[in-house]
Design brief:
The protein is of the alpha+beta class and about 140 residues long. The chain has one domain. The protein has 2 helices and 6 strands. The strands form 2 sheets. A 4-stranded antiparallel sheet has the order 4-5-1-6, covered by helices on one side. A two-stranded antiparallel ribbon has the order 2-3. Strand 4 and strand 5 form a beta hairpin. The chain is globular, with a radius of gyration of 16 Å. The two termini are about 15 Å apart. The mean pLDDT is about 95.
């Protein structure tokens, strides 16, 4: 049975699908979110959002292949970017009594790119606990 997990983070991890190298000849264009890319600066913004998303997926993939990925959305109430995914095996991230403890261990202090649309000033490192928590996980 698949287990579904919701990820919420203060870092902009919008899945823009902007990948590869910058090519001025291909401009103007739009990314997967509909944002217009007209120059190197707007391309880098879009690419860096995608890089943050890819970073999260790479860490998630250390223990299990993420399945059924949802689109990344911005939750205005919580000022967080959110997406869900599922894994094939239950308790894959369980550590003691914490159902997602291993996922928290994996994500702790992972570097992220800042200056992309975050609502508050962030350190550039994922924090999984304490006053500076910047990423949360919830079993659905």
């Amino acid at each position: 049975m698949n287990q579904q997990i919701k990820v919420s983070t203060k870092y902009d991890c919008t899945a823009t699908k902007t990948v590869g190298r910058y090519r001025a000849a291909g401009l103007p264009t739009v990314d997967a979110t509909g944002a217009e890319i007209v120059d190197l600066e707007t391309w880098e913004q879009s690419r860096n959002k995608q890089r943050n998303y890819e970073t999260l997926l790479q860490v998630i993939s250390l223990r299990s292949q993420p399945l059924d990925l949802s689109n990344t959305t911005f939750n205005v109430e919580n000022n967080c970017w959110e997406f869900t995914y599922s894994v094939e095996f239950e308790n894959i991230y369980k550590k003691g009594a914490d159902e997602v403890g291993l996922l928290k261990d994996d994500m702790h202090q992972i570097p992220m790119i800042v200056g992309l649309g975050e609502v508050e000033k962030l350190s550039g490192l994922l924090e999984v606990s304490g006053d500076q928590t910047s990423i949360w996980f919830e079993l659905i």
